[in-house]
Fold this protein.
Amino acid sequence: MRLFDFFKLSRRGPTSADTAKQRLQVLVALDRKGGGGPDFLPLMQKELLEVIRKYVEIEEERVNVDFQAGTGFSTLEVNIELPSETAKMAV
Amino acid sequence: MRLFDFFKLSRRGPTSADTAKQRLQVLVALDRKGGGGPDFLPLMQKELLEVIRKYVEIEEERVNVDFQAGTGFSTLEVNIELPSETAKMAV
């Protein structure tokens, strides 16, 4: 349950605006113990969002992206606020 | 730095087999406060992996997928162990 624990931790307290919303969070972490290697997470981000867009309606202004790169690691965090009942259930 | 903190937490202690490896972790969490809605995370999983495969070499046996669904949330966790210097740097 580690992931869910994190998800709960990262959640702000509910606000009236939040209560009716669905929220989708995508976290990508690359642990480059061997050092080096190009940072492909920012490039991959656009394509990951395209996949998600097949399943749910995404409004650009509701997408928040945070990328961080450090020595031996990079992380990409994408937070998307979805309108309720927005899932498209694509095949 | 919340994501990185989580990433550090979720890391097992290093083993001799780990030290030369890169690791890619993808976490997708859907917070369905409004209840209901279809669970599209398992469907999305295959397509997300296809995107990642464009950027890095993935061996099937090095991919570990965990899906959990509960009341009002679902989470998808994909852990991929990559050989060092495997990034393809696709465009």
Remarks:
- The first strand of chain B starts at residue 22 and ends at 32.
- The radius of gyration of chain B is 15 Å.
